[in-house]
Structure formats: structure tokens, C-alpha cells
Design goal:
The chain has about 270 residues and is an alpha/beta fold. It contains eight helices and nine strands.
Length: about 270
């Protein structure tokens, strides 16, 4: 890694339905890459907790608790809560009795819709995509109001598919007021904003969120930011983290956060 404090705080092992490698393998790769800190954050889609994720959450926690991290690697235990605002009771169950270091709050699908990954955008009527995004920003605000998370994951997640995979342009200027409301709510609540570097290896070709939005967050007074590759295998672990740190510096930041026991440790972008 190019940066002394390079850290990956969003990734998934085989304890996630779409992950492929063991926790031990992920830890070994993190040490091999020379990461300063590594946080594992397997999935829990809260609205599917009882039917699909309770056992996975329990298994991921047990494996994280039992594993012995390699010497010299700071290892933190985390979770990614998907749609906690849609089922707050299940979100609470996912966290109960488990002393996570770090909790990511994410919205992968808005109410009554599938994950943005699965939606069909071809032939969409005028205003359809904007309406999806409007509902998305609103659910992010609901999640922030709920509050039991540490960083907001991949703010521009829908664009990964709308713009990246489907090549449909989106004019975010029409949504700037809503995005500013999300940023303001995050700052007021003392929550972090994640720089998700998965987009750098995907068709969209930029971080989620990207440089202009990170500059805006900084202008509004945002100070807490985290970094994550969103890797689902050892092959992608830490990819884009160095580039993400450079983007943060360009946006005006001098520090980023790594969380231990749900509290941020501020580290220099060096």
C-alpha cells in the first residue's frame, strides 16, 4: 500500500451470501497487503433478518470472535446493516449482544423495490429514475434519524447501476438539495460518510460518492469519513483504498476515521 495508514473498513467474507473467501483468508490477505487496519463487515439485510440473515450474523460473529488475526494487523469486527430503517426491530436484534467495533448503515433497496442492482431501467418513463432517487434520499434520512450506525455506506450506490452498468446519465444537480440534507443530517448526528472505492474497479469508474460530492460534504462542515473497498473476495480486498485516500486529500480532508468500539480513531491521510 502506498499510504502508511491505509485501512479497509468495508468488505465481506463467505459469511455474506455474495462473499467467497473465509475470514482467515481475508485476514491473511489484509496482512499481506500491509494494511494498517482491517475491519470485516459482513451483510445483514434487515428486512430479511429472520428468514435469511439471523444465522449468518451469528456465524459471522462467532468466526470473527474465534479467529486469531495475524501479528501486526489491527483487526476490527463490523457489520453492514442494509435497510435498518425498514425493520428497526431486526436491526436491533442484529446488534444485540454483539460488541461490534463498527456498523455501516446502507440502503440497497427502497421500500417495495428490489435491490438497485436488479431493477430494470430500460425504457423507464420520464421521471422514473428521479423518483427512485428521491425515495432513496428520503430513506437515507430515515436511517440517519434511526441512528444506530457509524458510517453511511456508498452514498451513490444507485448510480453504480443506473449510470455504471446501464449507461443512463443522471443529473444530480436536481438532487443537490436532498443530498445536502443528507450531509447536514449526518454532520448533526455525528455520523461518518464512507468513501466506497468499489466504483473504481467497476464501470462507473469513480468512488461512491465521488470527488465533487466529497468536496461539498467538506464545505458543509463534514469531518468524519471512512474508507472501504466493498470487496467480496481476497482478490479485491483493499483495491482503490490508496486512490480513495488521494481523493479525500483533494477534497480538502487531512484525516479519516477507523472505528474501534464504535468510536472513531482519526488517522492522517498519509
Amino acid at each position: 500500500m502506498k499510504h502508511r495508514f491505509a485501512s479497509d473498513c468495508h468488505n465481506h467474507s463467505h459469511c455474506s451470501p455474495d462473499g467467497s473467501d473465509s475470514i482467515a483468508a481475508m485476514l491473511s490477505r489484509a496482512r499481506e497487503l500491509g494494511l494498517y487496519a482491517y475491519t470485516l463487515t459482513d451483510h445483514c439485510e434487515c428486512q430479511k433478518f429472520e428468514e435469511r440473515y439471523r444465522a449468518r450474523v451469528e456465524d459471522a460473529w462467532a468466526q470473527m470472535s474465534d479467529v486469531q488475526p495475524p501479528e501486526g494487523l489491527r483487526f476490527y469486527r463490523g457489520i453492514e446493516l442494509g435497510q435498518p430503517n425498514q425493520d428497526t426491530a431486526s436491526a436491533a436484534k442484529a446488534l444485540q449482544g454483539r460488541a461490534y467495533d463498527f456498523v455501516i448503515g446502507s440502503i440497497h433497496n427502497i421500500r417495495d423495490f428490489e435491490d438497485f442492482f436488479f431493477l430494470d431501467y430500460s425504457g423507464a418513463p420520464d421521471g422514473y429514475i428521479d423518483s427512485l432517487l428521491t425515495a432513496y434520499w428520503q430513506e437515507l434520512l430515515e436511517m440517519i434519524a434511526w441512528g444506530d450506525f457509524d458510517t453511511l455506506g456508498h452514498l451513490t450506490y444507485p448510480l453504480r447501476y443506473i449510470q455504471g452498468d446501464h449507461g443512463i446519465p443522471v443529473d444530480l444537480s436536481k438532487h443537490q438539495d436532498a443530498i445536502d440534507s443528507v450531509f447536514t443530517a449526518l454532520i448533526k448526528a455525528g455520523k461518518a460518510l464512507e468513501v466506497n472505492t468499489s466504483g473504481l474497479r467497476q464501470k462507473i469508474g469513480r468512488t461512491l460518492p465521488d470527488l465533487p460530492l466529497l468536496k461539498r460534504y467538506h464545505e458543509l462542515g463534514g469531518k468524519l469519513v471512512t474508507l472501504g473497498s466493498d470487496a467480496h473476495s481476497i482478490a479485491d480486498l483493499a483495491k482503490g483504498i490508496d486512490e480513495g485516500m488521494d481523493v479525500l486529500r483533494e477534497a480538502g480532508f487531512t484525516e479519516f476515521a477507523v472505528y474501534a468500539q464504535r468510536r472513531p480513531e482519526m488517522l492522517p491521510l498519509e
